[in-house]
Design a protein that fits this description.
Length: about 350
């Protein structure tokens, strides 16, 4: 079965052998405060830093999901509430989760073909979805750099530091290059571009984010950011962690190429996908503005009937497409352009699309 589902998505084929390896290594039965478990976490962090080029001052934590990161950010990094700019289902869900914990959180919606709208207020913490998996849009490095500049120039003063920026990179981290300095909090769960089974997420925080957490000193939750910091400093966790997931992450990171190479391939394949749709089919990308099209998740529009027919053809060819999401549920389908997908699999899907 070939999967283009954008999460959970195709796992790297080596995972089969790594699952065996995890069992054989004995790591699944060790105490999570044992030297073996701590060494595994330490090595995983070193590989994350090396492969994803995460700069030293940024701290790395592991959580169970991106959803958990939404709550950690709200509870541990905001006193009043966060400000969200969103154009799709995941960005909106993030706002909803934040607002349950911090009711003063606010959001501004924008159109999927638009660049970011102007901020409605001075944020305490600005929340952006770097790659909106529901509709195949992304915020470019230039856009994020401009946001950082605006917040630093316009809102920072001698008494108040510039507002923090949190970025949901769940469906882009490990697939494209991210300029970490443009955000204070970044996170992604591993069932998207990392090509791994769900149940683990990577959370990356700047020293300013950690400073803010210390200032707020929120310690009311098992996953309060300060508990994560105190535990992960010793390569431990506040709770018994998903050591199988960590083992798989470590092994996959060991073998994937450097991110610059992965990212160049992702970019090339994304451009090739858009070119293919436009020149070899009469399928139309959901996003018409090339400046905001995602490199890692493509959304394609069509009538509900045509999409249903396409899915039948795909199923016959052993291919799973991603369903449309939220308001685009019946009028679009989605394609993951994740690193674990092979050129042969793309060719197989393109064969079907040429005829549909
Ligand atoms: C998949 C996804 C999530 C949710 O991830 P979980 O691991 O299920 O919590 C959040 N945000 C974005 C952008 C996603 O693509």
């Amino acid at each position: 079965m070939i999967s283009f589902y954008p999460g959970p998505s195709k796992v790297y084929p080596q995972v089969a052998q790594y699952l065996q390896g995890a069992y054989a290594s004995g790591i699944l039965s060790v105490n999570h405060r044992s030297p073996a478990a701590m060494a595994l976490v330490e090595q995983t962090f070193a590989r994350l830093r090396e492969k994803l080029a995460i700069p030293d001052p940024y701290r790395i934590y592991l959580t169970s999901s991106a959803t958990e990161c939404w709550e950690i950010i709200a509870q541990s990094l905001t006193a009043r509430g966060s400000t969200h700019l969103h154009n799709g289902a995941f960005g909106q869900k993030w706002l909803e989760y934040a607002a349950r914990l911090r009711p003063a959180s606010t959001g501004t919606a924008f159109d999927l073909n638009d660049l970011l709208p102007v901020l409605p207020e001075v944020p305490e913490l600005l929340c952006l979805t770097q790659n909106e998996t529901s509709n195949g849009t992304q915020l470019s490095g230039e856009t994020l750099a401009a946001v950082r500049r605006t917040l630093t120039a316009d809102y920072a003063s001698a008494v108040e530091p510039a507002p923090l920026i949190a970025l949901d990179a769940t469906s882009s981290m490990a697939g494209i290059e991210l300029d970490w300095s443009q955000g204070d909090v970044w996170y992604a769960s591993v069932q998207k571009c990392f090509g791994l089974p769900a149940g683990l997420a990577v959370l990356v925080c700047s020293s300013r984010a950690l400073e803010r957490a210390r200032q707020l000193n929120e310690r009311a939750h098992y996953n309060s950011l300060l508990f994560l910091e105190e535990n992960f400093q010793q390569y431990q966790t506040p709770y018994t962690p998903n050591l199988l997931g960590i083992y798989l992450l470590n092994r996959v990171l060991e073998t994937v190429p450097a991110l610059a190479d992965v990212a160049a391939r992702t970019r090339r394949r994304a451009l090739e996908w858009y070119r293919f749709l436009e020149t070899e089919t009469d399928w139309v990308p959901l996003v018409s503005n090339p400046a905001v099209r995602s490199d890692t998740v493509l959304a394609v529009q069509g009538t509900p009937q045509r999409i249903a027919d396409l899915k039948i053809r795909c199923r016959a060819a052993g291919i799973t497409l991603g369903n449309g999401y939220g308001p685009w549920k019946d009028t679009s389908f989605r394609l993951a352009n994740f690193p674990a997908i092979t050129d042969e699999e793309i060719e197989a899907l393109q064969q079907v699309l040429r005829l549909a």
